Every structure is written in C-alpha cells, then in structure tokens.
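Check out a protein:
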Amino acid sequence: MTGSLNMIGYGLATIGPGIGVALIFAAVINGTARQPEARGALMGTAWIGFAVVEALAIIGIALAFVLG
C-alpha cells in the first residue's frame, strides 16, 4: 500500500515542475514576440531553466522509489 501512496504523491508533485516548464516557455514566447532578435539568448536561458526544473522532478521520482 505504501508504494501506491508514494506514486500518488509523486503524481501530485509533478504539478509543480509542469507549471514551472509552462511558465518558462511562456516567458520565452512573450519575450520573443517583443524582441525577435533576442531569441537566441532567451532560448539558451530557457533550456537551462528547463533542465533545473526537470531535475527537481527526477529527484522527486527517485525519492518516491527510495522511500517506498
């Protein structure tokens, strides 16, 4: 029963990184619409932010398996 509860908890915890990724790329789209010439710099920063947010999700699933 605890393994199932860990996965339900992880499922709820993925809402945060999902919203984070959405906000990052929404900001890039908005910035690109305002200044198209800055697209390269914005995308580089966006990929770094995406990697950091996804690392939190990967740590979360690792903890769900370790604690279960």
User: Anything to note?
Assistant: The radius of gyration is 16 Å. Residues 2-67 form a domain with the F1FO ATP Synthase fold (CATH 1.20.20.10). The chain has three helices and no strands. The helical segments are 2-13, 15-34, 39-67.
